[in-house]
Q: What sequence folds into this?
């Protein structure tokens, strides 16, 4: 798992970790049951404070993304990932429905929509 | 305490080597006065160890290590006593070797004198160490030199002539008494030194 | 168990007073003690190790009162690097190894030798020929080679070049991978402390002005620059220190208490300390 911490921007470090791990879980890079590095190991590898990684993990646990197993460590939580993924899929469906409506409105073909999508992916 | 002794011996090693050459020459010379001088001179060597300690502020570092005040102080006593005893043993050896060439054996008188000189040197150290601990080496050095000139030479000369001055029974008693005296003075001195060392703590 | 617990610590000298210090170093953490020369950092460290007598207060180190008998054997688990106290100048690294082997129960000769190599310290050179940096590195090697649980360093990185300082900070980082290992580090090089500390304790003229989590400090404080007129609009409680120049006002503020209309810049630990120290006049 890659975590990039930036000192320059004003987002607190624990938030950066929280966001990146959350995104990793949401995007499927981190799967349920995957073990996360220990709070201490993560802090030392990133050269940041243990207090901060603990805070990030605490927030992730509160939000239901991860859970701690005593003496074993932190793991990506199960149900929640599925639920969130479901939600995301629903969201994407909604967006796609909208896209198809709008496309119909201005006469864009399916092929042209796919082209636009490829362009966006390349730029992003 | 072993670590402290190793430190002190490593620190004075150079002095010790020079000193060994000096006393080797001295003790091989006939006559006893050189020997006395050697045993008494060795009492000055702990001063060098203490001086190096002061230069590097070693005591501050030692306070951080698992050494008690007693360990630090007593190690200097052990150092001093080992040096005196070592010199005494070396003296016996040296005289024995000389004796081979002069066809004289070591006499009881020699051992008596040697034992007394050793006790005397130990008492000098018992006075020297508290002074150095209390005043440090700079000020202590002057005091010690004065002391050595007055007492050291005087006492040593006394001992050399001891057998002429005392009757035989008294001579026999002299060594055990001197040993006891040196031990008592040594113990009292050590206790005082530990107290002085502790009182230096800010 | 906390590595260090200090309550109400006081010490008076003729011209200086360490006044009522309360400090806790939790196990597994690195705390930076920062302050100007003469602020009281070294005094605090000496008091922690009972190298000088405290006038008042409680000091617990690794769970034991530092005046108890137990403390003497706890020193086996404490590695200390001081600013100006060393081994006698005629000794060399090899001598130090023999001495320490007979001083600490857990002396690790192999580890010491590895540190000597890593720090490029010659075995047989006498300390009188050592540079200040070399002396520091040797002291560090000694402190790390007897399996300590707590490291205490007094200005140990001053006088070292940036590469070496960085390496030493790495060593502290690795040292605290074990949650039972803690570090107390005093320095006036704030940038070093900002890199690795979990907590920052600021001592100024004998008083502890704050002891806080480093990341919280960086999150909570910020710097604003504005005209004197605009500055009137900033609530007083939000301002923790300020500089008034001919061109306006520069102030250290609590981010949360300042309206988002103002641009708040990042405040580094050194900034925070300078502003707060000024405010203390």
A:
């Amino acid at each position: 798992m890659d975590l990039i911490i930036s000192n320059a921007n004003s987002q607190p470090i624990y938030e950066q970790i929280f966001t990146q791990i959350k995104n990793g879980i949401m995007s499927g890079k981190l799967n349920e049951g995957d073990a996360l590095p220990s709070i201490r190991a993560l802090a030392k590898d990133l050269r940041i404070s243990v207090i901060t990684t603990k805070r990030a993990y605490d927030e992730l646990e509160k939000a239901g993304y991860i859970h701690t197993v005593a003496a074993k460590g932190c793991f990506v939580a199960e149900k929640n990932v599925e639920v969130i993924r479901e939600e995301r899929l629903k969201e994407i469906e909604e967006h796609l429905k909208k896209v198809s409506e709008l496309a119909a409105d201005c006469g864009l073909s399916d092929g042209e929509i796919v082209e636009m999508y490829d362009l966006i992916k390349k730029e992003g | 305490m072993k670590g402290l002794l190793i430190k002190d011996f490593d620190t004075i090693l150079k002095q010790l080597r020079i000193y060994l050459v000096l006393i080797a020459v001295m003790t091989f010379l006939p006559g006893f006065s050189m020997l006395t001088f050697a045993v008494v001179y060795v009492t000055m060597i702990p001063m060098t160890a203490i001086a190096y300690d002061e230069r590097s502020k070693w005591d501050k570092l030692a306070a951080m290590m698992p050494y008690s005040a007693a360990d630090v102080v007593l190690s200097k006593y052990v150092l001093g006593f080992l040096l005196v005893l070592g010199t005494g043993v070396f003296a016996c050896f040296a005289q024995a070797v000389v004796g081979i060439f002069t066809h004289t054996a070591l006499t009881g008188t020699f051992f008596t004198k040697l034992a007394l000189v050793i006790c005397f040197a130990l008492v000098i150290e018992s006075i020297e160490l508290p002074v150095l601990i209390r005043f440090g080496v700079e000020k202590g050095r002057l005091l010690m030199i004065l002391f050595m000139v007055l007492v050291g030479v005087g006492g040593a000369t006394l001992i050399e002539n001891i057998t002429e001055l005392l009757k035989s029974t008294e001579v026999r008693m002299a060594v055990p008494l001197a040993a006891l005296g040196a031990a008592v003075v040594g113990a009292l001195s050590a206790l005082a030194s530990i107290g002085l060392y502790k009182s230096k703590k800010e | 168990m906390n590595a260090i617990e200090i309550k109400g610590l006081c010490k008076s000298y003729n011209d200086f007073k360490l006044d009522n210090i309360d400090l806790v170093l939790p196990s597994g953490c690195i705390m930076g003690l920062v302050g100007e020369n003469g602020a009281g950092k070294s005094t605090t460290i000496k008091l922690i190790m009972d190298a000088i007598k405290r006038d008042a207060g409680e000091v617990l180190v690794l769970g034991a009162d530092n005046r108890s008998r137990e403390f003497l054997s706890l020193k086996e688990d404490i590695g200390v690097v001081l600013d100006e106290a060393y081994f006698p100048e005629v000794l060399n690294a090899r001598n130090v190894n023999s001495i320490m082997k007979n001083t600490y129960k857990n002396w690790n000769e192999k580890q010491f030798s590895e540190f000597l190599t890593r720090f490029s310290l010659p075995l047989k050179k006498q300390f009188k020929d050592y540079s200040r940096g070399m002396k520091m590195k040797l002291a560090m090697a000694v402190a790390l080679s007897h399996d300590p649980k707590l490291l205490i360093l007094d200005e140990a990185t001053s006088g070292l070049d940036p590469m070496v300082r960085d390496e030493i900070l790495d060593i502290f980082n690795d040292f605290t991978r074990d949650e039972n290992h803690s570090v107390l580090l005093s320095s006036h090089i704030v940038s070093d402390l900002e890199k690795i500390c979990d907590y920052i304790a600021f001592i100024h003229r004998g008083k502890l002005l704050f002891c806080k989590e480093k990341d919280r400090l960086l999150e909570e404080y910020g710097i604003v620059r504005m005209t004197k007129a605009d500055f009137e609009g900033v609530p007083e409680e939000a301002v923790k220190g300020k500089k008034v120049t001919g061109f306006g006002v520069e102030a250290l503020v609590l981010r949360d208490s300042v309206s988002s209309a103002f641009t708040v810049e990042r405040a580094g630990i050194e900034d925070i300390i300078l502003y707060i120290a000024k405010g203390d006049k």
Q: What stands out?
A: Residues 72 and 182 of chain C are 19 Å apart (CA to CA).
